Amino acid sequence: MQKKNMIFLIALVVLVCSAIYGFVQPVYLPGAEKPFLDTPFIGNLRLGLDLRGGTYIVFEAMDTPERPLTDEKVRDVRDIIEERVNRLGLTEPIIQRMGDRRIVVQLPDVDDPEEALAIIGTMAKLEFRSEAGVVMENDEILPDFDVPPILTGANLVQTTAMIVTLEDGRSSNVVSLEFDQEGATRFAEATRRAAAENRPIMIFLDDEVIQVATVREPILDGKAFITNYETLEDARQVEIMLDSGSLPVDVEQREMRFVSATLGQDQIDSSVRAGLIGIALVILFMLFYYRIPGFIANFSLVIYTLIVLSVLIGLNAHLTLPGIAGLILSVGMAVDANVIIFERIKEEIRIGKTIRASVESGFRKAFRTILDANITTLIAAAVLFYFGTGPIRGFSVTLSIGILVSMFTAIIITRRLLKIIVEAGKITDSRMFIGIRG
Predict the structure, then answer these.
(1) In whole angstroms, what separates CA 342 from the centre of its chain?
(2) Is the pLDDT of residue 387 over 50?
(3) Which of 207, 254, 371, 435, by CA, is between 20 and 30 Å from 224?
(4) 324-374: per-residue pLDDT in tens?
C-alpha cells in the first residue's frame, strides 16, 4: 500500500508540473521541429474585446418586395447572429441594434475580416431530411452525409410562430414554414413519399435533430405548419432555431474594421496584481489555519485551476477582465468544500478520535453537505443557462464548470492525499495536522 501511494503521489506531482510547464512553455514532441503547443498560457486562452480588441462589423437589413422588412425581423437577425457566434455564452461578443435596420457586431480576438464573416455566416447549418437520409448511432439520430438533404436553410424563405384555429375549432401553437420555388417543388415530392409511407421529416441544425415532424398529407404549395407546441414560447424557440439556418431578410455588410482593446495595460496589470494578492492571502490563510491539510488544499487548488483553464480553452472561451476576476474569485470559492471537510475533521478529533478515523469520518459527514449545496447551485446555473442569453449563459457555464471541478478536487484529490499522509503514520500531533490546541 505504501508503495502504491508513493507511486500515485509521484505521478500526480509530475503530471501537475508537466501541465504547468505546458501552459507557460512551448512543448515539442520528440524529433519535431515545430512545437506541439506553441503558445504560453495567456496565448491559449483567447482574449475578449476589453483586453485584445477585435473586428467591428455593421450589417444593414434590406427591405425587398420578396422579403419585406419589419422590426421583428431585424430583432430576429440580431438573435440569430448571437446564436451563431455565442451559443454557450463564452465568446463575449457585442451584438446590438443601431437605428431601425442596422446591427453592430463586435467579435473579440478576431482581426481577419474573412474569419469574422465565416464565423457569422457559416456556423449554422439547417437541413431537412427523410428517414433515408439519417443513420442511428448510440440511440441518436444523425445525418447520413452520403445522402443529400431534401432541403437546406437556403430554401427556407420565412418562418413564423403563431396561434391558429384548427378545423375542429381548437387553437394550436404552430410554426409556419414557407419555401422558395425550388424548395417548394422538392418539399412537395418529399412529403408525398413521406405521407404515403407514413414516415416523418426530420429537421437538423448543426447536425442535431431539433424537430421530427409527422407528415399527414402531401404539401404542394411550399407552405407548411409544425403543430402541437404546448406554448407559443416553445414555438418561438423553434422559429429562432430554424431562422438561424437562414436569415429572415436580406442583409448587407456596410462597414468592417479592427477595434483596439477598450482597457489600458495599466488597468489590466493593476487588476491582475490585486487578484494575485487575493489568491496569495487565501493560500496563506489555509496554511496558517489548517497546517498540513491546508497545504494539501492549496495543492488541490493548483489542480483545480489547471483543469478549469483547460476546459475553458477546450470550449474556446474568451477571457475578459471580469472573467479574470471571476476566475480568481472561483479559486477562493473552491476552498469552501475543503473548509467544510476540515471543520468536520476538527470536530471528530475534539471528541477523541484518532487522526485516521477523524479523516474518514470527516469526509463522510461533509460529503452530504457539500453535495446538497452544490446541487442547488447547479440547478440555479441550469435555469440561468436555459432562460439566459449571451454573458448570462456564459456565466452559468463557467459557474457549473467551477462547481464540478471543485467537488472533484476536494472530494477525490484532497481526500486521497490526506489518506496517503495519514497512512504513512508520520504525523501524530493533531496541532500540526489541523492547528488544534489541546
Answers:
(1) 32
(2) yes
(3) 207
(4) 777 777 777 778 888 888 888 888 888 888 888 888 888 888 888 888 888
Report the largest interatomic distance among the alpha carbons of the chain, rounded to a whole angstrom: 87
CA distance 29 to 39: 14
Range of the domain at 385: 264-434
| In a shared domain, residues 269 and 387 | yes
Q: Exposed, middle or buried: residue 176 (CB in 10 Å: 0-12, 13-18, 19+)?
A: middle
Over the chain, what is the mean pLDDT?
79
Q: Please check whether residues 384 and 429 belong to one and the same domain.
A: yes
Which amino acid would we find at residue 266? D
- Cβ-contact 271, 325 below 8 angstroms: yes
The total number of structural domains in the chain stands at 3
Same domain assignment for residues 347 and 308: yes
Alpha-carbon distance of 333 to 433, in angstroms, equals: 22
User: Cα separation of 211 and 247, whole Å?
Assistant: 19
The pTM of the full predicted model, rounded to 2 decimals, is 0.63
Could you tell me if 136 and 277 lie in one domain?
Answer: no
Same-domain check for residues 405 and 269: yes
* Sign, Cα dihedral of 47, 48, 50, 55: positive
Last residue of a domain, one of 259, 294, 312: 259
Confidence band, pLDDT 50/70/90 cuts, at residue 390: low
